[in-house]
Design brief:
The complex is a heterotrimer of chains A (289), B (336) and C (314). In chain A, helix 1 packs parallel to helix 9 and helix 4 runs antiparallel to helix 9. The relative contact order of chain A is 0.17. Chain A is mainly alpha-helical. In chain A, 76% of the residues lie in helices and 0% in strands. Chain B has an eight-stranded mixed sheet, sandwiched between helices. Chain B has a four-stranded antiparallel sheet with strand order 2-1-4-5. In chain B, a hairpin with a 3-residue loop joins strand 11 and strand 12. The longest helix of chain B has 18 residues. The mean pLDDT of chain B is 86. Chain C contains 14 helices and no strands. The mean pLDDT of chain C is 81. The chains are: A mainly alpha (289), B alpha/beta (336), C mainly alpha (314).
Chain lengths: 289, 336, 314
């Protein structure tokens, strides 16, 4: 009996995976998204190779210079190379966003699984907590947390994770509530499989797709949050390059060197576009036929 | 005999799919006389609903009318522009849909919905339209009409909702009523009531009826004439009496034989072997031939249009005699 | 169940959430690593001042007692005293609230004015070129940081396009506000639009493909009447829901945008207070805004119940 249930669960899972492998290269949004994101990630990883200057090195003799051969995008008010700062900024912002979302995903999924599967007090408590966090305007909570904890990169992780897990819990809980009434779960329980096994091998693979798709757009939101915090001065602290902070610092010189403020924003837009396309493509692919 | 109110000739409706063209209606022809009821019978996928929608021009955007004519009151509807076609809807041809829960606007009171056509199409004033709505509600047998008129669709039972649908269809005084499986979504007892209602309305108001269903018993009760559809085409027509007693198409015979027989006339329950064809990849020749017990070589190629027979009947089958003979030997209905 | 019954039920449901909000806000101070009082006052604070602050905030008492004190003061409208301005934090927030509310409403209005026609247009021309173009807006637009939109608008309108609009401030009088706040409100609107367009388009499509729309068409009604009389009412329900749900985003966005355009609202107050380590004010702002959001969710649900007759029959 247990074996049969396992087979059914496997079959459902394989359906998803097969569909994915078969079509990923034929889904234009997915391909476009992966390409853009891949390019940016590559650039970030290969930063020392494609830049000629140290992003934090100041050159007070050449501040606010326009584009030139040695400084393709010019320099900022402290003479730092703009191009380097944008590329290294990608490193910072992408890394923080991905890691933060990963942990939000992890924590939110676990809580969602437990909450949806067991119901009862666990569920009531978790749902109440979710509602409370959701009641806070996103930025207000993040800023308050960063304020309280202190403005440094580690605390940005904490703040984002503390606020971000909520969405995953909601999604996973919803999916689990539906899935736990399906035959394969009932069969597994009737066969006496332990809860942990059911959760891990049977429920999890089938409910996690929505959360994965959401995670992609969540990364976009997180990058925006990190960058906004940077703009407000509460984010990644200088001199580490951060797109938001760069936009802020450049705003004073909007009349003369408008690129300093706008180009970091463009970098955000392009990265976000890649992620959004990836999310759309993934949604198309992972949707059961 | 007067001109038929509706004459459909060789109608073709196609859907554009990624994998090819789906021939949903492929050369269907039938007629409806004034004040008469025609049943359109077939399984799902036979094209009956699409044909019905084509009559009022309510096809989905991916559909295309690829040929044929639809003559209503002598005018070919397909040659008219959209505005004129729209003028026909409701006023000349009205439709009763299958699922009243989704076919009624959930945020509008039913009285308002029934009174909308009189208000907008018949130029009545608000109070007049409301009075007319109440009249119609009584006509279709909705008790306590005044109170019910202020209700929302979800507050009514399935049977009442379908009566509301019928009232809406009748509200602009149409000459032809198209019913798309109006009783399928209802309980059996309610089904009966609605059928009787439609019959009485037909008599009272002299409306013509096209009744689409897959349920032969329902058709037998409600209609005088019948047209049997298969794979997008009409394969047999005639009066219900004649066709059900002596079917002259193997598909009709198969259908009749597969209905559970309460009268105990037939010894066994049979079904038609095989599956309905893929409308995007129809077989050559007669579309039914892969499943036909009377098939011969000639059936596998060529066209098989409706052929007129004696007694106002028609069939698309070249083996109709063998078919009728078989039906006589093993009667389908009592008193054959 | 009647409308009042529904409202009462929703109100009751909101209470534990509101309480939860107060608990969370209350707890913020305890998240501060180390000694909160010392951290707030900074390294140069004298031990005596630190001790005074600790006592004043009741940090030397057990937690439940602290919470009790906190709630007691809250009920009397006392949100603590600003460390910097020396006046009640509540009063500071109250003074600046109108400005922020102005920005929120103005921005929401503009976003609806932009998003609804676009969504309507896209939904009615489904899968054609114009639809795909409009669908591209959320795709690209969601990646635009709100502050960046503001900066670009500043660049284009404020500095280049003949200085059409002032680049900051609040202005005097109703029309002064309309004028000065146009750019910030437009920024808010453009930041909100992508989400609105996407949700509205989906909601409208669902409505347009519904069976009752086919019924309406079968009555021979003009397409205009079908849209306005049948589709619109159902779509309005979705619109209200979508707007309500996105209010949290809206509020957060205004915060940042106030900084970009130097609008003297609550957002700016909060940011300044963060830099000045003025904890009571930060706490007060967090509290007020969250309660505002809870209220808006409540109102949205009630509006939904008013518009949609199906809702009350749970």
């Amino acid at each position: 009996m247990g074996a049969a249930a396992e087979i059914v669960a496997e079959a459902t899972l394989v359906e998803h995976r097969r569909g994915f492998r078969r079509r990923w290269y034929r889904t234009p949004t997915f391909v476009a998204g992966v390409s853009i994101l891949g390019l940016i990630a590559l650039a970030a990883a290969a930063a020392p190779l494609i830049t000629t200057h140290d992003p934090v090195q100041q050159d007070l003799l050449h501040t606010l210079s326009g584009p030139s051969w040695s400084h393709p995008l010019g320099t900022d008010d402290l003479g730092r190379d703009e191009w380097s700062r944008i590329v290294y900024g990608a490193r910072t912002d992408l890394r923080v966003a991905f890691i933060a979302v990963f942990f939000s995903f992890l924590i939110g999924t676990i809580i969602g699984l437990l909450s949806g599967y067991y119901g009862g007090t666990v569920d009531t408590l978790a749902s109440w907590l979710v509602n409370v966090v959701v009641a806070f305007p996103f930025y207000i909570l993040i800023i308050a947390l960063v304020f309280v904890l202190g403005s440094n990169t580690r605390n940005i992780y904490i703040a984002v994770i503390l606020v971000g897990w909520v969405s995953y819990t909601r999604i996973i809980r919803g999916e689990v509530l539906v899935a736990k009434r399906r035959e394969y779960v009932l069969a597994a329980r009737a066969a006496g499989l332990s809860d942990v096994r059911i959760l891990r091998r049977h429920l999890l693979p089938n409910v996690v797709t929505q959360a994965i798709i959401f995670a992609m757009s969540d990364i976009v939101l997180t990058i925006l949050a990190i960058v906004t915090l940077g703009y407000l001065g509460l984010g990644v602290q200088p001199p580490t390059p951060d797109w938001g902070r760069m936009a802020f610092e450049g705003q004073t010189f909007l009349t003369t060197r408008w690129e300093l403020s706008t180009f970091p924003g463009i970098a955000v837009v392009i990265t976000a576009l890649g992620l959004s396309l990836l999310a759309d493509g993934l949604a198309d692919l992972l949707r059961p036929e | 005999m007067s001109e038929p109110l509706l004459r459909v000739r060789d109608l073709r409706v196609q859907f554009k799919l990624a994998r090819g063209t789906l021939r949903a209606v492929d050369g269907a022809s039938f007629e409806v006389g004034r004040g008469e009821a025609l049943g359109l019978v077939g399984e799902s996928g036979s094209g009956k609903t699409v044909a019905l929608r084509a009559l009022v021009g309510l096809l989905p955007r991916s559909a295309r009318i690829a040929g044929g004519s639809i003559e209503f009151d002598g005018v070919d509807v397909l040659t008219l522009d959209e505005d004129r076609r729209r003028a026909l809807r409701g006023r000349s041809i009205a439709m009763v849909f299958q699922e009243p829960m989704t076919a009624l606007n959930p945020v509008m009171r039913v009285g308002e919905q029934i009174g909308e056509s009189p208000l907008v199409r018949l130029g009545m004033g608000r109070r007049q339209a409301r009075a007319r709505a109440l009249e119609l509600m009584s006509l279709v047998g909705i008790p306590d009409a005044k109170r019910r008129a202020d209700a929302y669709p979800h507050e009514l039972s399935g049977g009442l909702r379908q009566r509301v649908m019928i009232a809406i269809a009748l509200s602009a005084e149409p000459k032809l009523l198209l019913c798309d499986e109006p009783t399928t979504a209802l309980d059996v007892t309610i089904q009966d009531q609605i059928l009787k209602l439609l019959l009485s309305l037909q008599e009272e108001l002299g409306v013509s009826l096209v009744f689409v269903s897959h349920d032969l018993a329902v058709i037998a009760q409600a209609c005088k004439n019948v047209a049997v559809m298969y794979a997008g085409g009409v394969v047999e027509t005639g009066t219900v009496d004649a066709v059900f007693r002596e079917p002259r198409h193997p598909y009709t015979l198969g259908l009749l034989r597969s209905v559970p027989d309460v009268d105990g006339v037939r010894g066994r329950l049979s079904s038609i072997p095989g599956t309905p064809p893929d409308l995007a990849a129809l077989p050559t020749g007669c579309p039914f031939h892969p499943r036909c017990p009377f098939v011969v070589d000639k059936c596998t190629s060529g066209e098989f249009p409706l052929r007129a027979l004696a007694g106002n009947r028609a069939t698309a089958c070249i083996r109709d005699d063998a078919c009728a003979e078989d039906a006589r030997r093993e009667p389908v209905v009592a008193n054959a | 169940m009647s409308l009042t019954g529904y409202v009462v039920r929703r109100l009751l449901q909101a209470v534990p959430v509101a309480l939860g909000v107060t608990i969370l806000v209350f707890f913020l101070i305890h998240l501060i690593p180390g000694d909160p009082a010392r951290t707030i006052l900074g390294n140069h604070a004298t031990p005596r001042n630190v001790a005074l602050l600790r006592h004043d905030w009741g940090l030397d008492r057990p937690l439940p007692v602290q919470y009790e004190k906190f709630m007691a003061r809250l009920v009397h409208g006392d949100l603590g005293s600003s460390l910097n301005y020396g006046v009640g934090a509540g009063r500071l927030v109250r003074e600046r609230l109108p400005v922020t509310l102005w920005l929120i409403c103005y921005g929401a209005l503009l976003s609806v004015l932009i998003a609804v026609p676009l969504a309507l247009f896209a939904a009615s021309r489904r899968d054609r070129v114009s639809d795909h173009l409009i669908r591209g807006v959320p795709l690209v637009g969601l990646g635009f940081p709100p502050f960046w939109i503001g900066i670009v608008l500043l660049l284009v309108f404020g500095l280049h396009l003949g200085r059409l609009f002032p680049v900051g401030g609040y202005g005097q009088g109703f029309f002064g506000h309309l004028h000065s706040m146009f750019l910030p409100a437009l920024t808010v609107a453009l930041a909100l639009c992508p989400i609105l367009i996407r949700s509205l388009r989906a909601a409208l499509l669902e409505v347009l493909e519904a069976d009752y729309i086919t019924t309406a068409r079968s009555k021979g009604l003009s397409e205009r009447r079908v849209l306005m009389h049948h589709a619109f009412r159902n779509a309005a329900i979705s619109t209200v829901s979508v707007l309500g749900v996105n209010i949290g985003f809206l509020v957060g966005g205004t915060l940042v945008i106030e900084q970009v355009f130097a609008v003297p609202g609550v957002g700016q107050l909060m940011i300044n207070s963060v830099f000045q380590r003025d904890f009571p004010v930060v706490q007060a702002v967090a509290l007020v805004f969250s309660m505002l959001v809870v209220l808006v969710y409540l109102l949205t649900d009630i509006a939904h119940a008013l518009l949609d007759p199906r809702v009350r029959f749970d």
